């Protein structure tokens, strides 16, 4: 059995929604999955101004050190101007100890994002690859081989990308 951590940042819940669906898929394969969120960096008065709901109580904040307990990762990164939000890069920056010890070396990692217009979805996912590469992790993209029909289907707005799942 493989232990998988889904690591998220979500202000309005779209990434959390996707994470819960991905977790159901992993559970259906008989593997173990836990959903986490990274620490918030915005002060509460700013969160109030942007009408951010409170974070889900059942999703704990993960520390870099806790990544040692997992075999593989799926990281949910909402799109911010075609990039990862500072909360995610703040978390990546906290993994220097794991980088030094090789704690994430050759552990598989997949990525997913969420956007409003779809603009910047792939650059957001690509932006995480520098961290993935420096850690020596194994990036597992969605690709086309198993999902060509779905990705090529333009009859509905589904937003997905070979780089990873996308909620648009
Ligand atoms: C500062 C900021 C920048 C954003 N930039 C983009 C963008 O480049 N493209 C896009 O389609 N949506 C953009 N959005 C919309 C978010 O990506 C979208 O609301 C997000 O997927 C919501 O995720 P969440 O509900 O998990 O927080 C932006 C939102 C904010 C607050």
UniProtKB/TrEMBL annotation:
It is found in: Cell membrane. This is Unnamed protein product. It is a peripheral membrane protein. GO terms for molecular function: FMN binding; NAD(P)H dehydrogenase (quinone) activity. GO terms for biological process: cellular response to oxidative stress. NCBIfam families: flav_wrbA, PRK03767.1. InterPro entries: Flavodoxin/NO_synth (IPR008254), Flavoprotein-like_sf (IPR029039), Flavoprotein_WrbA-like (IPR010089), FMN_Rdtase-like_dom (IPR005025). Belongs to the WrbA family. It comes from the Eukaryota. Pfam families: FMN_red. Residues 4-168 form the Flavodoxin-like domain. It comes from Ambrosiozyma monospora. Flavodoxin-like protein (FLP) that plays a role in cell wall integrity, oxidative stress protection and virulence. FLPs act as NAD(P)H quinone oxidoreductases. Reduces ubiquinone (coenzyme Q), enabling it to serve as an antioxidant in the membrane. One of its GO terms (cellular component) is plasma membrane.
């Amino acid at each position: 059995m493989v232990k998988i951590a889904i690591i998220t940042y979500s202000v309005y819940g779209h990434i959390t929604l996707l994470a819960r669906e991905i977790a159901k898929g992993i559970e259906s394969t008989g593997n173990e999955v836990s959903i986490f969120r990274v620490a918030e960096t915005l002060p509460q008065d700013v969160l109030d101004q942007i009408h951010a709901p409170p974070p889900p109580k059942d999703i704990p904040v993960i520390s870099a050190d806790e990544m040692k307990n997992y075999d593989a990762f799926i990281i949910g990164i909402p799109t911010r101007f075609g990039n990862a939000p500072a909360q995610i890069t703040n978390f990546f920056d906290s993994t220097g100890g794991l980088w030094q010890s090789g704690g994430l070396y050759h552990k598989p990692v997949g990525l997913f994002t969420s956007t409003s217009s779809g603009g910047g979805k792939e650059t957001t996912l690509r932006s995480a690859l520098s961290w993935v590469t420096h850690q020596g992790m194994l990036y597992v993209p969605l690709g086309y081989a198993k999902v060509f029909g779905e990705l090529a289907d333009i009859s509905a707005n589904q937003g997905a990308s070979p780089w990873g799942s996308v909620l648009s």
